[in-house]
Amino acid sequence: MKHWHLIAPDWASLDAIWRSPLPFVLWPVCEKPLLSYWLDEAVRRGVESVSIEAVDRPHLIRQWLGQRDLWSRSIDVRSQPGADDGKEILFLEGLPGTARPDSVRSAKDLMQHWYELQAEALKHRSSGMVHIDHEYRPGVWFGPGAKAAADAAFTPPCWVGSHANIGRGCRVGPHAFIGPNSFLDSDVEVEESVVCADTYVGSHTSMKRKVVQGGLLIDLIRGVAVDVEDEFVIAAMGALPSSPPWAERIVAALFAPPLEWIARTLNRKNKPIETACRLSRSRSVCLRSYASGPLCLRRSRWLRQVAAGRMRIVGVLPRSEEDWEGLSPEARSALEQAPAGVFALSDLYNCHSPKHPDEWMHALFQAGAAAGTGQWLARKAVLKIAVTNPIE
């Protein structure tokens, strides 16, 4: 029996465009993560055991494996090199049976390599293989529950994920990949592009060599990414973590004016401190803080951002560009998925600024704790946090 030793690439430092919260081996390639292709191949080849060497976020790989019954035997995931014990060494940089890429040296290379994996996976699939989706017609694949208008045009090869909805007059392909639960409105053209899962694309939109996920647009040719704030163009299917509910926005709008008046009166001899903070990949705001008083007064002007739908009342502290650059790639990817808030869990531990050396630990716990434990603790203590008067 064969024994495989799979080595996952450590490309976290190259992921500067998409900034995915997942390691590369868990990035989606058509209907499943890249790692799934290797485990399926291991089954076909009768491999007895598999060990995975992963430096980049191995805990997420263990978590993903633990949620799926993919293997009748245990899979060892370790973050440090170990003895091979005669195992066949393979690199998880591409699909099984393909040569290792030698051109992934930049963020742009990484995104283009990921797109090429989609095309490679579609090129080698056939109706005789086992898939959850079916071949609608030669070279055009549909996942379970996917729908398309009668006049939608498909140019092979292309792939449509499960429960995706293709509107009237859409033109999909060639080399178009529409993720699960996504929605293309009328008259949308997608060519040599990827629409990620749970993404809405508005009417009369044309995409070529692009990737969209929620409100994020990635240009594969230029190697850049921007947030599109116009939800009529592209948007996430469902509320973003940074978007507060209307009740929260109304509360912020009601409390902001009186709290600001008190803060200005208390700090009439001191000008507000202005800090440019980045709330998302391309959205920056200037936050004004007062020097004296409890946090509810010092950050009273932040409530305007909650009322505008840009922040939450409770979330991780917003960070300046300098603060973001000081984080590790793993910490940055986790915190970018978390909502920024006026009050944070770190405030409970007297870490009232991202520049505090211990703030990032509390922020990571709040952003990534199982079942939202960190966020729940911060919400439970929000009144205590609000009246905290930091010691100068």
Write out key terms for the chains shown.
392 residues; alpha/beta; Spore Coat Polysaccharide Biosynthesis Protein SpsA, Chain A; UDP N-Acetylglucosamine Acyltransferase, domain 1; 3 domains; 8-stranded mixed β-sheet; 5-stranded mixed β-sheet; 11 helices; 27 strands; 26% helix
Task: Please outline what is shown here.
This protein is 26% helix and 23% strand. With 392 residues, the chain is of the alpha/beta class.
Task: Give a structural overview.
The protein is built from 11 helices and 27 strands. Strand 2 and strand 3 (32-33) form a beta hairpin. The chain has 3 domains: 2-103, Spore Coat Polysaccharide Biosynthesis Protein SpsA, Chain A, CATH 3.90.550.10; 134-236, Hexapeptide repeat proteins (UDP N-Acetylglucosamine Acyltransferase, domain 1), CATH 2.160.10.10; 246-386, no CATH class. 36% of the residues are buried. It has an 8-stranded mixed beta sheet with strand order 7-8-11-14-17-20-21-22. A 5-stranded mixed beta sheet has the order 9-12-15-18-23, with no helix packed on it. The mean pLDDT is 88. By secondary structure, the chain is α/β, with parallel strands linked by helices.
- The tally of domains stands at 3
| Average pLDDT rating | 88
User: How big a fraction of the residues is strand?
Assistant: 15-25%
The portion of residues assigned to helices is: 25-40%
